[in-house]
Amino acid sequence: MHEVSDFADPSRISAVVDGLRSVDGAQVSTDTAFSSLTTLRLGGTPSAVVRCSTTDAVAQVVRRLDDENVPLLIVGGGSNLVVADQPGALVAVVIEADAVTMSTRGHGLESTAAIIEAEAGAVWDEIVQMSVDAGFGGLECLSGIPGSAGATPVQNVGAYGAEVSQVLDAVQLYDRASGEVEWVSPESLELSYRYSNLKFTDRAVVLAVRFELSIDGMSVPLRYGELARRLGVDEAEAAAGEIRRPSDQVREVVLELRRGKGMVLEPEDRDTWSAGSFFTNPIIDESEVETVRAKVAERRGADEAVTMPVFPAGAGQEGKAKLSAAWLIERAGFPKGYPGQGAPARLSTKHTLALTNRGESGDGTPTTADDLVALARDIRAGVHAAFGVTLEPEPVWVGVSIDG
């Protein structure tokens, strides 16, 4: 959880914020709620919201707030935030710097790769669309993911068998301790499944990202079974990790799959008022897999236990296995749409891994962050009671915790 100071002096914060109005590229407001900044459309009003249209403005604003010890939260697309109804005395710094450039590494026929460089506030799916339209490959499996470019390395965004770490070339950071701006390598971020050493820390702010993509217009190897099948690829071939398809075809199918699960933002579709996949797929010791399977058999029967999805945990996690959070949630007794009509916060009716804001309860009371938090706690407790597996939330928590 992102900690918010309980003893920050509102008058002092107000004075500091007023000084930010002189920063070129910064716009200050004091009446903007987090509900208008997040895809969950939840969260109260912070002390101020500072929108930064340039990376220089981001660095200056963060530096001034840090110098004055004013609590702050960096906000991009707001797709990975669970914010309290009363977030406390803090300043939201919204990154809106969104310039994108494309080039190639090498010259002419000697070009070896495509390079896309994007400022942190660029809309992620627009970058993916640009890359595909330009005939590049590498980002197509990450189509339709809400949010901004700056968030992608922080949590090593991934979907359909691909991760940002596969194509990340460099990240530009503002170091909050030293005040320096520098480009760093992916290796320095210790990237792993939905993790980097930037996540859940305040040590640096992502200002820009750079990706190295293929110039042949072909996708990354197709490894995700559902996607491979839709593209006519045999699962055994997909498992070998060598089959690729044109990036535009892969993007089209990925968007279809995501829409079918309510994972593409649609203003009128309450199933998309979410933070995407709310829980990460749990990673456990391989020695624990059969224990979990036995608990599934006890609860759901031996035939279903045999079908429990188990995957390799990935590079650097030898001896570990990855389970499916969505599969466990459903088998623990939480169907799509749980807990049913009239609940202000519910599981998506399209996908059990998305917790959604329905706008209001059956009696017309507006949904609150507390409603969503209560649902998250209910589901996590139920999965643990059923199978002994503790689900970990993927979003950043601000002013509230799933642990109570």
Automatic annotation (TrEMBL):
What is the protein named? UDP-N-acetylenolpyruvoylglucosamine reductase
Q: Name one GO molecular function term.
A: FAD binding
One GO cellular component from the entry? cytosol
Q: Where in the cell is it found?
A: Cytoplasm
Tell me the lineage of the source organism: Bacteria, Bacillati, Actinomycetota, Actinomycetes, Mycobacteriales
Cofactor requirements of the protein: FAD
Q: Which residues form the FAD-binding PCMH-type domain?
A: 42-294
Q: Indicate yes or no for the key word Cell division.
A: yes
Per its UniProt entry, what is the enzyme's top EC class, as one word?
Answer: oxidoreductase
The keyword Cell membrane appears for this protein: no
Q: Which UniProt keywords apply?
A: Cell cycle, Cell division, Cell shape, Cell wall biogenesis/degradation, Cytoplasm, FAD, Flavoprotein, NADP, Oxidoreductase, Peptidoglycan synthesis
Q: Which organism is it from?
A: Corynebacterium lactis RW2-5
